[in-house]
What we know:
Elements (H helix, E strand, L loop, with lengths): L2 H47 L4 H46 L10 H6 L11 H4 L2 H28 L2
Helix pairs in contact: 1-2, 2-5
Amino acid sequence: xxxxxxxxxxxxxxxxxxxxxxxxxxxxxxxxxxxxxxxxxxxxxxxxxxxxxxxxxxxxxxxxxxxxxxxxxxxxxxxxxxxxxxxxxxxxxxxxxxxxxxxxxxxxxxxxxxxxxxxxxxxxxxxxxxxxxxxxxxxxxxxxxxxxxxxxxxxxxxxxxx
Length: 162
């Protein structure tokens, strides 16, 4: 394969990987937002419309737990593929540097950017910049699941009188 053809293929792969990573970054915020919206709606139903009917409250909580679990799996799967795309982008970048050595290396991992004070002199290096948004989101979803399961257990105890 000619060097020009290899360069063309690598650039095309890089472009596709970057687009894919951008999609994963978008999904990373859409899933929690949708989960919060749905759980808020179900919370209104739980506190208002299903107030007098124990089975309805149990059903609403079960749906909220199920949906939150599914969203949790989607978010983790999304993170898996996003991480894979970052690895692909880093590999492609190394291959491109073999063809053309005078290109700037783009860093994809927060820790690498924070540590590179020469290549990224003006990026914030404070506590907030170092926090993982993914870990915060996962922690929030786990907390919501704990609250929902606790409410479900409470409803079961009230229903069966334990």
